[in-house]
């Protein structure tokens, strides 16, 4: 695969995946097309050698794997991991608010989002809706309004002369977006009615008697793009961490299939991963127990395995270079980053770092190092959580980006392809 083809596919995936539910739906379609067989956790599994399989949980996490030709305890499993969620604004259960003729909806902040970039954007709504049918059954489906249907207008500088010096955001009072304008004599408008109308438009076959619940997020409708005078950058929403999901998926699909390989993409990393579909949950452990039903075989396989936890890294920002450690400031378009932290916020150690560095050398891929400044707090990833729960040797890596957790992030156009090649070597 050429770099240009890889980037086109990644941009399309980012555009079509406004929520973790949509990301997993799109990954499932790609896996189906590549000949992977879908499994259900509620069914008995009859796995075969040289098989290609995948399973989802909650519609927002996915594990795809190949069984290879050899026995798991003898070869181990080449693993990679990423996460499907990104910081965003989620609609509250009873969100309606009419103020001065404007219908607004209340939102909660999901994850450690940069809030100021959400103002003055053309926003849309997407997510999962669950409803009751006329026959008293419960069903769910995804919706995506696609077009701009909401905006969070900034306060004019005339009312806040200090806005450019010190701007903080109160999520409760300042983030409710405007959806439409209403008149005093209009009938009461409810967000669930709006959702029901959209659900029927997208799914005409749906028998919607009553909306029982939803998980709906706001997202920026501006599509991702390849930017820069030489098209050397990629900008868009949810680069953290859908870039890693797509990259790992493409690498797994391109693997020879001779050795056991696995990709896990968990939800809820941005809020701590403590959920049924998060890295602190039992999803990966449950799948591994079905791949290797005997405990001793499973422990032997895990001891011979390596997990590459892929999550975007901080590039050194030219306007804020002092925020980076002087010796560990990764540059965009200079290759994937190995992330190291003495307090085990990253799971990398000397042996797993060496293993990934060797993979990059074999794939002819440049590699960089990241260590947080000693006077700043360090984030974390699914790496330490997976290593703790499963006991698998793990290295934390990622593509360097700017504006992490903003509504629009920025990466180098070559780095995703570099990581793809490194993961391809891992799966070879």
UniProtKB/TrEMBL annotation:
GO cellular component terms listed in the entry, alphabetical order: cytoplasm
InterPro entries from the UniProt entry: Peptidase_M18, Peptidase_M18_dom2
Protein source organism: Desulfonema ishimotonii
EC number(s) recorded for this UniProt protein: 3.4.11.-
GO molecular function terms attached to this record: aminopeptidase activity; metallopeptidase activity; zinc ion binding
Stated family: Belongs to the peptidase M18 family.
Keywords, comma-separated and alphabetical: Aminopeptidase, Hydrolase, Metal-binding, Metalloprotease, Protease, Zinc
Cofactors named for this entry: Zn(2+)
EC primary class: hydrolase
Name this protein carries in UniProt: M18 family aminopeptidase
Keyword Hydrolase: yes
Superkingdom of source: Bacteria
Gene Ontology BP, a term: proteolysis
CDD domains: M18_DAP
Record has Ribonucleoprotein as a keyword: no
């Amino acid at each position: 695969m050429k770099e240009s083809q890889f980037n086109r596919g990644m941009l399309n995936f980012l555009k079509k995946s406004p929520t973790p539910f949509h990301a997993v739906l799109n990954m499932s379609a790609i896996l189906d097309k590549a000949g992977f067989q879908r499994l259900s956790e509620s069914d008995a599994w009859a796995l075969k050698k040289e098989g290609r399989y995948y399973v989802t949980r909650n519609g927002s996490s996915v594990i795809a794997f190949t069984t290879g030709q050899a026995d798991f305890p003898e070869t181990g499993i080449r693993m990679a991991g990423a996460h499907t969620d990104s910081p965003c604004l989620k609609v509250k259960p009873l969100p309606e608010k009419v103020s001065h003729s404007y219908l607004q909806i209340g939102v909660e902040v999901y994850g450690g989002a940069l809030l100021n970039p959400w103002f003055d954007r053309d926003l849309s709504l997407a997510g999962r809706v669950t409803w009751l049918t006329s026959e008293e059954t419960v069903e769910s489906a995804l919706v995506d309004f696609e077009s701009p249907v909401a905006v969070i207008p900034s306060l004019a500088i005339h009312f806040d002369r200090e806005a450019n010096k010190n701007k903080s955001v109160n999520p409760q009072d300042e983030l409710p977006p405007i959806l439409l304008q209403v008149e005093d004599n209009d009938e009461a408008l409810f967000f669930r009615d709006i959702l029901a109308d959209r659900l029927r438009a997208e799914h005409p076959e749906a028998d919607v008697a009553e909306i029982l619940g939803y998980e709906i997020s706001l997202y920026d409708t501006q599509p991702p793009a390849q930017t820069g005078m030489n098209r050397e950058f990629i900008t868009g929403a949810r680069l953290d961490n859908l870039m890693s999901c797509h990259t790992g998926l493409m690498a797994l699909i391109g693997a020879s299939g001779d050795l056991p390989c696995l990709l896990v993409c968990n939800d809820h990393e941005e809020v701590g991963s403590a959920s049924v579909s998060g890295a602190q949950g039992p999803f990966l452990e449950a799948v591994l127990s079905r791949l290797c039903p005997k405990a001793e075989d499973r422990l032997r396989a895990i001891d011979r395995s390596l997990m590459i936890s892929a999550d975007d890294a901080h590039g050194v920002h030219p306007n804020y270079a002092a925020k980076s450690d002087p010796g560990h400031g990764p540059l965009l378009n200079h290759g994937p980053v190995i992330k190291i932290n003495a307090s085990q916020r990253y799971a990398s150690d000397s042996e797993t770092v060496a293993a990934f560095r060797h993979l990059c050398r074999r794939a002819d891929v440049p590699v960089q190092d990241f260590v947080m400044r000693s006077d700043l707090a360090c984030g974390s990833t699914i790496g330490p959580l997976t290593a703790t729960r499963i006991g698998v040797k793990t290295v934390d890596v990622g593509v360097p980006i700017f504006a992490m957790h903003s509504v629009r992030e920025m990466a180098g156009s070559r780095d995703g392809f570099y990581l793809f090649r490194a993961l391809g070597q891992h799966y070879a």
